[in-house]
Amino acid sequence: MDLQKISVSMILIGLGLVFFFNNENIGKGAAKFYQKLYTEKNLKVMFKILGGLLVLGGLAVMFAK
To answer: Helices 3-21 and 23-33: crossing angle, nearest 10°?
Structure first.
């Protein structure tokens, strides 16, 4: 595997894990910022989905040929 693929995939996995496990803290801060547009509950769900997609994307990049 290329070093570039591994480094990009590790960054994606790291960001995905931050979004996935830290979604409550990110949701609270973002809910204050986007209070008129989004609710805190919706933002928690969106950050959890985004985290999962980033982890899957990182794994796909890591194991792609």
So the answer is: 70
